[in-house]
Structure formats: structure tokens, C-alpha cells
Amino acid sequence: MNDLRFALRSLRRNPGFTAVAVLTLALGIGANTAVFSVVNSVLLTPLPYPQPDRLVLLWEAKDPARQATNVVNPGNYLDWKDRARSFTDLAALGWAGIIFTGDDPEMVSGRAVTPNLFDVLGVAPARGRMFTPEEARPGGPRVIVISDGLWRRRFGADPGIVGRAVPVADGTATVVGIMPASVRPMPLGDEEFWEPFRLDPSDRSRHGRYAMVVGRLRPGVTRGQAQREMNGLARQLEQEYPAFDTGWGVHVVGLTDQIVGSARTILLVLLGAVALVLLIACANVANLFMGRALGRRHELAIRTALGASRWQLLRQRLIESLLVVLAGAIAGVVLAEWAVGLLRAARPAGVPRLAEIGVDGTVLGVTAAVSAVIGVAFALVGAFGERGAVAGTLRAAGTRTTAGGAALRVRGGLVVAQVALALVLLCGAGLLLRSIQKLTAIDPGFDPAHLLAVDLILPSGTYAEPARQTAFFDRVLERVHGLPGVEAAGAVSYLPLTPLTAATSFSVMGRPAPAPGESPTAEIRIVDPEYFRTMRIPLMRGRGLAAADGPNAPPVILINQAMAREYWPGQDPVGQRVKVSWTHADREEEIVGVVGDVRGASLDVPVRPRIYYPRAQEPSGAQWIVVRHRGDPGPLAAAVRGAVREIDRDVPLQDVATMYAHLTQSLAQRRYPMLLLGVFAGLAVVLSAVGL
Q1: Residue 190 needs a FRET pair 20 to 30 A away by CA distance; which of 95, 128, 178, 423 works?
Q2: How many other C-beta atoms lie within 10 A of the C-beta of residue 680?
């Protein structure tokens, strides 16, 4: 207790030393605590399911080097479910959306799932029940299970909602269950409700791939064994359905690995970077302790002369260093909690399990352990400085004793280490910045300036007829064209630089039929004739789409340059005819023009062959409205929202953002690590400057 009181008085008499040491440690420990809390929640904490290491996702894959996680055909899923013996069960998932109507219409993302999904995951509804097999049959009743978050946000946590029919755009939907708050979205989704995936087990026809499959491994079965069995099943199905399954394999991925994805490498890099920051902070404070020991050499010499043992001096130093580290750790935890809150609010792309990230007991325990080690290390470093200072004072042999010289060399080495580590972080941040600069220099294929994009999805029941879908979007575009400052407006089914896409196979008329599994593929876009002028996508050859390309006109398409180069190298594709395995697989479409290449989901993904259908010939209930404004397009959002509500107040605007915002979002997975590494590098430079 005497040592504790003396340490408190000593630190109070030296407020400059105390403040710098505590602040330095707070920055280093706080940064490490924040990053480790992310690593702990994302990488180290198991998923909230029983035996989560037994859960896997099954994907189809035709070209594993290019895309090993392709969606699954429902017929293939049913055959896997019947024949595979490596799993206790398999469940299928699709994507869904529902529009809750009322005073505040809202589009909510969800999943269409087979009734056994949550049995496979090992969870049950907190209230109510899951679907029955009869409800999942084609033509079954409209029933939904909602998430805990949607229950609280939309329905005010009303326990009586279970069993009640709620108004939706297509009529009503009966809420049969509420899932617990621990249930998290599956990969590639952000679902807040679940509805039945309507499958007919007797229908094994092969038409398209649009599902995910999740399974639970049997006890004792490894993922490698399951992969080998699925490889054999893929070969069986290839023989049974050569036209559809030739060349397609199965890829078994752990659910945790799928959720974490590329975030694992990024988080480990950031954890390494922030550990360097902590080392710099520790070197800085260690230098302060050694300097403080040199400044107290007369006091320590008197204590030694009066009979103080080496253990007594070390104990007093240990208490003082632990007090400094404790204050720094407490301030660091407060700083980390604030930083984690900012991270959750920012919702950066590429950070999975974001809602689970927090400073919990595990993080605090690790922080306490690291702080204790640091405190002991500082005490030992201070004792090393004391030894030289006391010996030099007692012998009165001048200031350049052997021990004193060694202490000075250690202090100099600590400064050199700080500068070296800071330089490493600066180089890493600089390289990431350089990669971002190169990405932003890539031409996206359109002019993002002054562009606003609005996502509209029509209720499938209200707008089941293609003519109604076409009429709705025609009216919206007519209203938008009349808004002040609007230069052009168009529509497209999948917006550039957003993650979703659609693709299918095609064949070229006049050429030999490709062998099974070798048909060429292209992405599909459904567009308004004004889309290309609005986006300023150039017409390279032929003509563009026109209002005359209506439902009764000859079917026509446009293709991009990538498709022209790959399938008509050195030739003019205009006038060529193709059959596309889309809604009219037997219909021949004439290529009337070639347009410039536009990037897909990201600037760093190569442009794939792409086919553009006129909206009038291939109506769609889901379209992005793109609007080019003479000035800032941001304020235009309210006017577009009002125009849509005047036509149909039950159609919500699902996503409203400028194209610059979408461009930034597409780079977010690289931008956030670059920003964080840049912050850490700047912090390292500041700490190194303090050390100097």
C-alpha cells in the first residue's frame, strides 16, 4: 500500500509524463481492442447454431476457377436430397421480396425456403411455427415467418401478430411464426422474412439455376468425404441430363467459410497492422519509462544506499507501470467501444456478421491480459534503466558508464524500431491507395455524373400481366421526363455496379449446335430505348432500340462489344440471329446493334458478353429507373418518389441513390481496409513523432 500511494503521488507530480503515457497506450490498446473485437466476432465466435462446423453450402460449379459458387437447379437439389448419404438433410433457399402496404409501404427482402431449413440449421421459431409441407406445395396459402427485427420495427413487437393476416401488395399474408433474434441472414442476402419455396417433388425438369442449398453433415462425415460423394452424384446427373448438367460439378463449402469469405484475409491483415501500432505505442512508453528512470537516478541511489533491495525497487516500479497501463487500458476500451459503434453505423461492405460485433467479455479478457503483460514489461524496462542510473550515480564515474551506455543504446533502438514499423504501415497504406487509384481510373462504360438510380419492384399479383408492367413503367418514365431539370430517363433490369445479375446460354443461327455443356453464355439486361442515352453508353455499330420495337414487332436485341469480340471476331454481328435460352428459347432474335462495354458488379471484374432486350418485348416487373439531371440529382429523389406514389402508392422505392454512390459502394470492400490501414499508419507516424 505504501508503494501504491507513492506511485499515485509520483504520477500526479509528473502530469506530462502520465498524460503522454496514458494517451499513447489508450490509442494503441483502443485500436487493438476495436480490431480484435471484429476478428473475435467474425472469425472466432461460432455461428449461433448447434454444431455450426457441420453446416455446409452446396453450389453448382461449371468453371471453378472463374466461379465456384453458382446457384443450383431445383431439380438437381431434389435428386441430391434423395441420393446423398453424407448429410442428415438438405434444404433449399431462394430470394424473395414482399411489400407491406398501408400508410408507409415498405419493400422487405426475404427468402423462399423449404420447410426443413431451420431443422437443418437447428433452430426453432421463438413464437409460432414453421411452414408445413402442404403449405410449401405449389398453390399453397400465403404464409410467412418474420424476423425478430421486423417484428419489432414493423409490428411494434405485438405478440398477437402470430396467426394474423397482414396487408401486402398482393392481398394478405398470414404470419405463422417469429424467429429468435439470434438467427442471422444467410450468405448473399439480408432477409427479414421467410416464405415457402414452392417445389413439386415429382417435377424433376431442368429449367434454370436460382437456388442455394444448405446441408448438415452426418456425424463422422468430413467435408472432403461429402465433396467426393457429390462429385460422383454430379457425374450421375450429367449422364441422366446431358443437355443440362454436362460439365457442371458440385462445390461443398463450409457455412462459416462462405459467410467470412475474403474478409478473413482482410481482417488478419488489419489485426497485424494494428498490432504494429501497439508495438510502436509500447516502444514509445518504454522509452518514456527509461528516460524517467534516468531522471530519478539520485532518488534511486539514495533508496539503494538506505538498504532498498532490488525486489523493492522493482515492485515499486511494477505498481507504477501497472497503474499507467490500467488507465490507458480503461481509456482504450472506451475508445474501442466508440469505434465499434461507428463501424456498425457505417455498415461497411465486406464485413460479415456486423450486428454481432461488440466489445464483449472475451475481448475485455484479452485486453486485460495484454495490458498486464505490457505493464510487467514496462517495469522490467524501467528496472534496466534504473540499474545503469543508480550504478553510475553511486560510483560517480560520470555519465558514460557501461550500463548507462547500454540503456541509451536500447532507447535509441526503440526509436529506430518505431520509425521502421511506421514506415511498414505507410508503405502498406500507400500500396492500397495506389490500387484504389487504379480502380477508379477504370472507365465504367457510362458517365456517372448527374445520374440518379431508383429501384422499383412491382407486386407480382397486382402486376402479373406483362402489359400492366409495361404500362406502369411507361407512366413512371413519362412523369419523370416532365420533372424540372431532367435531361433523360430510362430503365434497366440490373443496374451497373450492383451485385445482382442474370445470365443464360444462347446459340448462333447458321453454326453447328454446340456439344452438351459447351453452349456460350451471356448476361441478360432488359432496357428501355432511352437507357443508353441516359447513361451515355455509346452505340458502336448498327442501330439502337426504338419505340417501334414493340411486342408485335420482330424480336431484336443489342449486344455489347465483349460479345461481338468473343463470338464474331473480325466480323460484323449486326444482322446475325441467335436463340437465347430465356423466356422464349425457340424464338430467333436479330442483332440490330452493338453498344459499348459496361462494367458489371465491380470495376475490377472483366466485362462479360451481354445481351440487351427491349423492355416492350420482354416485360419485367423489376426495373431500375435511371434519371440524368442538369444539376445535382440528389434532391430529385423526392420528386421521383412522389411521381411513383401518384401512380400507385403501394409500390415503394426500394433503393434511391446517385450513380456516384453506387460507384463508391462497389469499391467499399477495398476502400474500408485502405482507410483503416491509412488511419493506423497515420497513428503510427504520430506515435513515432512523439517517441522521437
Answers
A1: 128
A2: 24
Reported residue count of the chain is 692
Compute the distance between CA of residue 562 and CA of residue 573 in angstroms, rounded to an integer.
Answer: 12
List, in sequence order, every beta strand (DSSP E) within 200-248.
212-217
* Tens digit of each residue's pLDDT (9 = 90 or more) over 252-294: 999 999 988 878 888 888 888 888 888 888 888 887 777 776 6
d(CA 274, CA 27): 10
pLDDT, tens digit (0-9, with 9 covering 90-100), for 24-71: 888 889 888 988 998 888 888 888 899 999 999 999 998 766 667 889
Task: Name the nearest CA neighbour of 648 among 193, 95, 99, 192.
Answer: 99
Please return the burial class of 201, using the count of CB atoms within 10 Å of its CB with bins 0-12, 13-18 and 19+.
exposed
The values of phi and psi at residue 686, to 5°, are -60, -45
For residue range 349-391, list pLDDT tens digits in order. Answer: 667 888 788 888 888 888 888 888 887 877 776 555 555 445 5
Name the DSSP class of 582.
S
Beta strand extents in 384-493 (DSSP E only): 451-457, 486-492
End-to-end CA distance of the chain, in Å?
35
Q: What is the DSSP letter of 172?
A: E
Q: How many whole angstroms separate alpha carbon 154 and alpha carbon 171?
A: 17
Q: What are phi and psi for residue 339, nearest 5 degrees? A: -65, -40
395 CB-contact burial (10 Å; exposed 0-12 / middle 13-18 / buried 19+): exposed
Query: 563: closest CA among 598, 513, 517?
Result: 598
pLDDT at 69: 83
- Asked if 640 and 653 touch (Cβ cutoff 8 Å), the reply is yes
Place of cell 441516359: 534
Q: Which helix (H) or strand (E) holds 641?
A: helix 636-647
The span from the CA of 61 to the CA of 690, in Å, is 54
- Where are the extended beta strands (E) located within 10-86? 55-61
Judge whether 670 and 267 are in contact, CB under 8 Å.
no
Give the whole-angstrom CA distance, residue 20 versus residue 350: 36
pTM for the predicted model, two decimal places? 0.80
Q: What is d(CA 495, CA 623) in angstroms, rounded to the nearest whole number?
A: 9
Rounded to whole angstroms, the Cα distance separating 397 from 375 reads 32
Q: What is the mean pLDDT of the chain?
A: 87
What's the grid cell of residue 329?
Answer: 487500458
Rounded CA gap, 570 and 247, in Å? 29
